[in-house]
Design brief:
It is built from 14 helices and no strands. With 291 residues, it is mainly α. The chain folds into two domains: 56 residues, no CATH class; 225 residues, MetI-like (MetI-like fold), CATH 1.10.3720.10.
């Protein structure tokens, strides 16, 4: 009875700590939302904290009126879906063969793959490689170079190791080839871990902008994060240029527009989490049980 009460108390403490951590993580987002909705003069007078003061949608109206921002958002959504599908396909095709003990050179292949996880050539060699492959100013540069994450591949491979060997052997006795075994047995059992990896890949692509910054000069293919980066830089330049001799409302307006642009680029990917949350913990845990 005593142990049951102590366990219940411990669960309540852990729950309270988790709730506190969530609230602390939400504070910056709430402050950003409040700034994006507040009147410019309220921002000037620093009266904005976690709720909007004299709410207005002018900042969002300015962002929505920028057609290039909307096009960038649509392009990023399409790019995220394509990259997620390609990355999951490549990850599965890399992880599944490594579960076969009879695969020749398996140890060397594992070593070479894991080596790339800890050591990279660097920015300049990567740029030279991308240029020699003819991928500069090509939208494929946002898809192909980072289509495989070694960390995600290890998670999926570990999960595949946990699938009973007897299932594969029975299928092979019935005449199933490796592709059939993968599609009919392994993938249906891997829903949780695949959903988790899909979330990893989607968030990584949605938030990525360094590759576009380095390899793309065509604004048509700029993802939303690079567009946001350029908008904030331009607004900062305007703010600095008009700091003296202009009414104080203009810097505040640019500050509100920055917050509105960040919210506009952040909310869509946040909406993905509730759909995949139930798979998240199970997928990572199952994939990490055996190695």
């Amino acid at each position: 009875m005593v142990s049951s009460r102590s366990k219940k108390t411990g669960d309540l403490i852990i729950g309270f700590i988790c709730l506190a951590v969530v609230l602390i993580c939400l504070f910056p987002m709430l402050n950003l939302l409040a700034r994006s909705l507040s009147d410019p003069m309220a921002i000037v007078n620093r009266r904005v904290s976690l709720w909007p003061v004299d709410p207005t949608l002018d900042s969002y109206r300015y962002v929505f009126l920028d057609s290039s921002f909307s096009r960038s958002m649509l392009w990023t959504a399409i790019l995220t879906v394509i990259c997620t599908l390609v990355s999951l396909t490549v990850t599965v095709l890399c992880a599944f063969p490594l579960t076969y003990a009879s695969l020749k050179g398996k140890g060397l292949i594992n070593t070479l793959i894991i080596f790339t996880m800890y050591f990279s050539a660097g920015t300049i060699p990567n740029y030279v490689l991308i240029k020699s492959l003819g991928l500069l100013n090509n939208p494929l540069v946002l898809i192909l170079p980072n289509c495989l994450s070694v960390f995600n591949m290890i998670i999926l491979r570990s999960f595949f190791y946990g699938v009973p060997e007897s299932l594969r052997e029975s299928a092979e006795l019935d005449g199933a080839n490796p592709f059939t075994v993968l599609v009919r047995i392994y993938l249906p059992l891997s829903t949780a871990v695949l959903a988790t990896l899909a979330l990893f890949y989607a968030v990584g692509r949605w938030n990525g902008f360094s590759d576009a910054l380095l390899y793309l000069t065509r604004a048509d293919f700029h993802p939303i994060q690079l567009k946001l980066y350029n908008i904030i830089n331009n607004l900062s330049s305007i703010e600095i240029a008009t700091q003296e001799g202009i009414a104080g409302g203009i810097p505040a307006a640019s500050d509100g527009m920055k917050a509105a642009a960040v919210m506009f680029a952040t909310v869509p990917i946040l909406l993905v989490y509730p759909w995949l949350q139930r798979y998240f913990i199970a997928g990572v845990t199952i994939g990490a049980v055996k190695g």
